[in-house]
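Input.
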Amino acid sequence: MNVVTREQWGALPPKSRRPLQPARVVSFFLHHAAGTYPSGVEAMRRIQRQHQGVNGWADYAYSFGVWDDGQIYEGRGWGAQGGHTRGHNTTGVAVCYMGDGRNPVPKAALDAILTVAADADRHFGRPLNRQAHRDVGATQCPGDVLYAWWELNKAPLVCDVDEWANKPPWVPRASWQALVDWRRGK
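Output.
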């Protein structure tokens, strides 16, 4: 995963940092910034200033940010507890699309979101439960357009060893197989 580091985008130092306990991480959350910015770097800087200065949080809330062009930016990364999803910050990581998910999202950004999700699975050594912010809180985040896409694309690309391990119990076996085949390009 090609990532613009905190140093490269000019992040302020975190006010505090709590280590994330990898064994506790079970979820991957999708968010959106619901704003417009001139660039990915500027989005990261403005959102961090909002989170630290206005909201009083320790740092940029999300593990990673994704810009329209598909560039991925390091937020808190995989090693620090986030401030992204109330009640789930010790057991989840998150990516933020730094645009407005109520509008169409460029394919490069969508692909980058899936890249971050797949990297999270690899980093933590297991498929994480993929959710949107609105799935666990009273919010419209990540916007209706991005949410509809996420619902169709959030299933992890299952491994060849046990392709059924990730199937939710409510999904029919035939539907799951069709999704697996489609994601594999069959």
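The helical segments are 6-9, 40-54, 107-124, 144-153, 173-183.
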